Amino acid sequence: MQQQTLKHIPNTRPLARRFNSQHVAPISPFSYIHHDALSDVSKEQIAKQLKNLGPFPTYSNILNPQHFFQNTVLLDYVKKKPHPVSLRQLAGFGNTLTKQKIINSANFVRMELPIRLAIRIRDLQTLPFGVVNNYHLAQLYESYYHSFNAFRKIPQIQTIEENEKFCQTLSTLLDDHMFNLSHLMMGALEVSIAESLPQDELDSFMSSMMRSRISRRVIVEEHLSLSENYRKNPYAKKPPHYLGEIFQDCNAVDHFNQVFDNVKASFIERMPELKERFPALELEGDLQCHFQFMVPHLHFMLHEILKNAVEATIQTHGKDSGHTNKLPPVKVTIIDSKKEVQMRISDQGGGLSHSTLQQVFSFGKNPTLARKSLANFHQIPGLQLRSNLKVTAGGSSIISSPSTGNGVEENVYSTREKASTLQELMSRPHEHTLGMGLPTCSVYADYWNGKLSMNSLDGYGSDTSLTLRKLGYHSNVIQLDRA
């Protein structure tokens, strides 16, 4: 539906043609919408929403004709510089927790979030109109501006009790903004369909937005975990190698097995005939390898790589239940060096052509592939397409704290129990291919000073190499400054 809006917008820049259009199917208004959505009843419902596909949707208290005249406050924040943060600094806060450290940490987060959000909002504002007016990116814009408005008004935190309320606000922020990553990916796919941004610009935009998102969430989650630890065990001293509660000691073999078991269960649920023939996971190398990392990030990267390897193997060697031969294994080699961990995942899934391999880590897609991916996005169970942001009658942003149902606010904000967009993406049916897994994994690997690369023998298989730097050896690197 967004395409109907964009095609009436005057073209203010040359169309960014990146692919050979002779091989691309023509784009229709409903190219990526599932056929079930095109019943007469559905068309009537869609028609009622046309007024909300323009630049000023009726449901938004932020996106209105006066918005840019209210932009002065934002521009003042854009002039400020985000404070560089390293893991060593975070570890220093957490080594021995005190009341003053918790309060200082709270005020750092309170001041830092509006600055980092303002930078990203300004980046969105400077995109071509036909891009930032995309429905999904407009949702992202509204979400960021909502948080910016709310957090810049929070007064200085002076007591532990005030920090507890602040933590509830932060916890709600993490929950309310879970849908942002999905909207960012879907926006990129629609931009690819419209070819309204060159591929290199789209990749740069997506990488900046994702790195900034990781930074903000790490800073927020670290403060929540510090506050939770102080509440439960104040003044406890941590070991010398401590990086923070959100970083856990990871045994590489255990995590590979855990993720592979989840991937296997997902495939067998829909292809029970493969149960006896399913590819095995063969692990070799330094099997005692341990390193500190954020488990959700690690699991997402391993999941996308292993899922791709298994899917390619099944497609290449057949899923016919008449076959009795076991499918070729997925082999993992683990190399544990002093400063990094290298993991090579090898499959016999037929490999990729040179042209496909060049595009595998790009967010920019061929319009035909982008339409298929977008259709799969719309079939993900429980996908949230409309924000649940709240405002006052005067338009001020509200971030509500959870309650017990009797009006009493819950004093619980455990990061270990938080829902995760990455978890939702991992739990989707495997046939809903999005084309965003490896590009997203590459951003996460790069954020932590690692690297994701792939080599392929077309007609045989692929080798995917994931290198992760041991964070303890790089704790003084300013990793969290990706504002």
UniProtKB/TrEMBL annotation:
It is an enzyme of class 2 (transferase). Its main location: mitochondrion. Its EC number is 2.7.11.-. SUPFAM superfamilies: alpha-ketoacid dehydrogenase kinase, N-terminal domain, ATPase domain of HSP90 chaperone/DNA topoisomerase II/histidine kinase. Gene3D superfamilies: Alpha-ketoacid/pyruvate dehydrogenase kinase, N-terminal domain, Histidine kinase-like ATPase, C-terminal domain. InterPro entries: AK/P_DHK_N_sf (IPR036784), BCDHK/PDK_N (IPR018955), BCKD/PDK (IPR039028), HATPase_C_sf (IPR036890). Keywords: ATP-binding, Kinase, Mitochondrion, Nucleotide-binding, Transferase. The keyword Mitochondrion applies. It is found in: Mitochondrion matrix. Belongs to the PDK/BCKDK protein kinase family. This is Protein-serine/threonine kinase. It comes from Lodderomyces beijingensis.
